[in-house]
Amino acid sequence: MTTVNCEIRDWSRVAVTPAPPNGKRVVVAMSGGVDSSVAALMLHEQGYEVIGVMLRLWAGEPGDADEATGFVHNRCCTPDAVEDARALCQAIGAPFYLKNLEQPFKQAVVDPFIASYLAGKTPNPCLNCNKQVRFTHLLNLAQALGADYLATGHYARIVAEPHENGDGGVEYRLLKGIDERKDQSYVLYSLTQEKLAHLLFPIGHLTKPEVRELARGYGLPLAEKAESQEICFIPDHDYGRFIEEHAPSTSGPG
Q1: Beta strand pairing call for 25-29 and 149-151
Q2: CA dist., res. 178 & res. 157, Å (int)
Q3: N or C: which end of the chain has fewer CB within 10 A?
């Protein structure tokens, strides 16, 4: 078991001068990291009414609880990350909500990951998470909160183009993020036209160094925060151990 230590950060220096309200409300998917935080600050600065939402995702069995808190922590929603997201929202006067999606996440992401692994395939849990959790449950929540848009810190872009037949309609195209090393469009390909119409990717036109530079300019204490690209529900990166512990029990030949 591991101990999670919440860092004390100075949020008093966060400075954003918002434009006049633009009449649009946006739910920002918060992770407590620099990307989603900068996305929220950019939208606040552009005059959006920002609402921060963070997802609590499944991380393991009760017996794996953190020795300091008694809770199991997915790396996407540790106490440290939750408090960073909450503090950022408080700094800009935005509401903040923590939504529990542990069971939907387990059913849509973790269980298929285990099944694919056992079948000798290479699973992509981020794809399932975006398709069946983040851009389904979270988008529904955004709409329930009366938001015009859901925004995330993904490195991808959305371009709206008028229909060629001149009927006044619009077609949305999902493009790669400008930063080739950080592009995440490949895990977003399942997004439909209906969903793309209600999504914003504020940092998709920026590189990671540019995002960090913006964070410094905003006085964001997360500007240098490290990032993780490993599977969020396997904190020790030991896939074999995880599969052995969580796969359904099977009996081989006697």
Answers
A1: parallel
A2: 8
A3: C
- Write down the H helix ranges in 159-207: 193-196
Q: Region 2-27: what's the mean pLDDT?
A: 82
Spell out the residues 6+ positions from residue 251 whose beta carbon is closer than 8 angstroms to its own. none
Q: 143 — phi, psi (to 5°)?
A: -65, -35
Which residue numbers are catalytic?
129, 232
Q: Which two tokens stand for residue 111?
A: 């269980």
DSSP states of 66-100 as a string? -TTTS----GGG-HHHHHHHHHHHHHTT--EEEEE
pLDDT digit string, tens, across residues 124-180: 888 889 999 999 999 999 999 999 999 999 999 999 998 877 777 899 999 999 999
> What is d(CA 110, CA 126) in angstroms, rounded to the nearest whole number?
10
Crossing angle, helix 34-45 and helix 208-218, to 10 degrees?
60
Strand 96-100 relative to strand 149-151, pairing: unpaired
Query: Using CA atoms, how far apart are residues 196 and 159, in angstroms rounded to an integer?
Result: 9
| Collapsed DSSP state (helix, strand, coil) of residue 175 | strand
Pair 26, 148: CB distance under 8 Å: yes
Q: Of 132, 50, 143, 138, nearest to 90 (Cα)? A: 50
Residue 216 φ/ψ, nearest 5 degrees: -65, -40
Structure tokens at 179: 């930063």
Of 14-18, 68-72, 123-127, 201-205, where does mean pLDDT reach its minimum? Answer: 68-72
Domains and CATH numbers, the chain: 25-153+206-228 (3.40.50.620)
Helices (H) and strands (E) in the chain, counts: 9, 7
